[in-house]
Amino acid sequence: MITVPAGSSLTLRCPGTQAIVLVSLAEVRAPFLAELPPIPVLSLDGPGVRRIGVLELVTATGVTWVEAELRNDQLNVIGDAPTDLVQRRASARRPGVYPATGTAQVENVDGRHLVALTGRVEDISADGLLLRATAEDQLPSLPYGIERALLHVAMPWGELTAAVAAVDQRADLLRGTFEWIDPADSAELTKFCGPR
């Protein structure tokens, strides 16, 4: 099963123009790449503009490249994948919904301060995680400039506590790598994310 998660960053490379970075607006899934339905994306093109190129497609299992067409904020796969899926990280990932709370260290124009977070981890590996969260002000996006966060995540074996360094931040999504994790939690996480 091929799953393109909501909030994925997709890059369309068209001949003669700069690469276009798009964000998927809804989760899309299909048994095979060629059967993926149109992917709704956030693009800056006006109505009727058509672009064809090679799409760097981020899926739940990794990244692949495929020929695609962008028209009216919809990405359509129009060719077979020239390569297999490529795992983006050295360690295996495990999708799911794991409730999380914590505190983020933010540095922006107001200076450096701490902000309370609540949300859920949607993707985790022994190296890092993807967090969908809101801050204490309950706005639909996280405050800009998160540097790191201390998180408490409800995992099947108990609470995982970890310090996470921010790698990428978009709207309510924060992707990060573990700066520190309790050694016992690290061992449990490696078993949890390992081959099933």
Explain what this protein looks like in three dimensions.
This protein is mainly beta. It has one helix and 14 strands. The chain has a six-stranded antiparallel barrel with strand order 2-3-5-8-7-6. Strands 9-10-11-14-13-12 form a six-stranded antiparallel barrel. The chain has a two-stranded antiparallel sheet with strand order 1-4. Strand 2 and strand 3 form a beta hairpin. The protein starts with a strand and ends with a helix. About 4% of the residues have low confidence.
The largest sheet, given as strand count, sense and whether it forms a barrel, is: 6 strands, antiparallel, barrel
Tell me the CATH architecture of the largest domain: Beta Barrel
* Largest sheet strand order: 2-3-5-8-7-6
What is the helix fraction of residues, given as a range?
Answer: under 10%
Distance from N terminus to C terminus (CA atoms, Å) equals 16 Å
**Percent range for β-strand residues:** over 45%
**Helix-strand pattern:** EEEEEEEEEEEEEEH
Quote the average pLDDT: 83
Radius of gyration: 18 Å
Kindly state the number of beta strands: 14
Number of separate helices: 1
Shape: globular
What's the CATH class of the largest domain, please? Answer: Mainly Beta
User: Would you identify the CATH H-level superfamily of the largest domain?
Assistant: predicted glycosyltransferase like domains
Q: Which stretches are low in confidence, meaning pLDDT under 50 for 5 or more residues running?
A: 82-89
The figure for the number of domains is 2
Structural class: mainly beta
Any idea of the CATH topology of the largest domain?
A: Thrombin, subunit H
